[in-house]
Amino acid sequence: MIASKLPHVGTTIFTIMSKMASDYNAINLSQGYPGFDCYPYLRDLVSEYMRRGFNQYAPMSGVPILKARIAEKTKQVYGVQFEAESEVTVVSGATEALFSAVTAVVRKGDEVILLEPAYDSYAPAVELNGGIPVYVPLKLPDFSVDWEKVKVAITEKTRLIMINSPHNPCGYVWTQNDLEILAELIKDKEIFIISDEVYEHITFDGRKHLPLFSHELLKSRTFACGSFGKTFHITGWKIGYCLAPKELTTEFRKIHQFVTFSTSTPMQYALADFLEDPSRYMYLNEFYERKRDLFCEGLKETAFSFTPAQGSFFQLVSYSHLTNESDFDLAIRITKENGVASIPVSVFYHNKLDHKLLRFCFAKDDEVLEKGLELLAKVKF
Ligand SMILES: Cc1ncc(COP(=O)(O)O)c(C=O)c1O
Q1: Residues in domain Aminotransferase class I/classII large (predicted)?
Q2: CA 121 to centroid of ligand 1, rounded, Å
């Protein structure tokens, strides 16, 4: 028998719920992927580069033109300069960036602060590297950071803090105040940051995404992980990037080159061309805000209570006023009885803490959302 390195990890809830959605012919608002296609032009660019023979290994850290475009975009959108050749790395999805960054930093016995609920790849990456996850819960009802608890969690052994803004599943968007407090907390310590910013272009109600690297001190400690999957509706392509100061990037690339070595060549060239026009991603806030509003408007006709998400393409709903049923049981029941699949939020907690919340993905066509809402209005408690 092989001794499992991750004995607690089984089939993820995303696989379970998507399979159940298909088995019961339910509307799948569980897994976080867009229900619509990418721009045809982007698809055509990939085909074009394949036809032209761009089909062999890309350079380990990414094709130069794409790294340059990512650096230009970062400068344009956030006013922050990264050196394309030494500080930008193209990776096979943000998941790879997160894993490679954790591996670059975490040594056996190091403590890593994870703010819960947390994306499911963080803790396994830490554990596989011999690190010890230290869980700090976010503060209800808005899931902002409980800075007093973070302060208490920091010890001599803390090596890394993992951040996610805009947040999956809760939609919280970090403020300037959050950045300042974090900087103050780590300034005299040797603590690094991994900042998962895959929903950077999806913020609502006039909020602006504040990358951690927009703060000078935080920039010097941060690996920022981005994903083209979320920005261009191409989650299946698994392509993203990591921005970090030169010294950190050097260590990051030592890991990246032995995890995947490099990322799909024709897709990199296609994305480099596609990035030329900022309107191809700057419209996203508005695009998803309209979908969030449509979804929230419909939720008013259901028994659930909710606060509109600040960012990301997820909406949480609460039902603690309706039943004591576990969120897991309720998600399954609604899929089977009502035909709408969601994700129980307890799966994002290491101890399966159940606040009686479900997560719905609203990155779907309007008709799908409308149908889903109609069915959700019929849920019986
Ligand atoms: C918070 C968060 N981080 C990372 C990822 C993974 O991104 P990618 O598909 O680029 O690996 C996701 C995808 O759902 C996510 O929600």
Answers
A1: 26-374
A2: 9
